């Protein structure tokens, strides 16, 4: 089973870099789908495999990087599929915050928190026009509050 997951992972890795830039709304969604697929693929393995944890986090960071390069105010209406993709990125960061706390690795917790806050800000910008985004935003806020209150 892991072989088939890794095969799919290699295909995503080969596909993502050849995508056109995110200048159009549709390409923004495609890039997010690719990174979201990587997060979903490595989510369950991340607890047991360092390489999956690293890959999961890199994909979540790629989503944050795309958001940082996007003028959110000019995007207009969004595809609702972005809500669960952005949620998965936040949950990857939250999982890493919890992992670092358990392992007493507090070196980059602040950057992880900032990444979650960046995605939350994007989600907030679209929550009023997308019920799914509102629901996902609520779930992210609860998960994040639970992760940071335990510190």
Structure notes:
The chain is mainly α. It has one domain (2-149). It is built from six helices and no strands. Helix 4 packs antiparallel against helix 5 (109-127) and helix 4 packs parallel to helix 6 (131-149). The radius of gyration is 15 Å and the shape is globular. It starts with a helix and ends with a helix. The mean pLDDT is 91.
Give me the secondary-structure topology:
Blueprint: H1 2-15, H2 25-43, H3 50-68, H4 82-102, H5 109-127, H6 131-149
Summarize the structure.
The chain has 151 residues and is mainly alpha-helical. 74% of the residues lie in helices and 0% in strands.
Measured as a percent range, the helix fraction is over 70%
Counted by DSSP, the helix tally is 6
Instruction: Give the tally of β-strands.
Output: 0
The outline comes out as globular
Distance between the termini: 36 Å
Derived structural class: mainly alpha
* Largest β-sheet summary: none
Low-confidence parts lasting 5 or more residues at pLDDT below 50?
none
CA radius of gyration: 15 Å
Return the average pLDDT rounded to an integer: 91
Order of helices and strands: HHHHHH
| Total domain units | 1
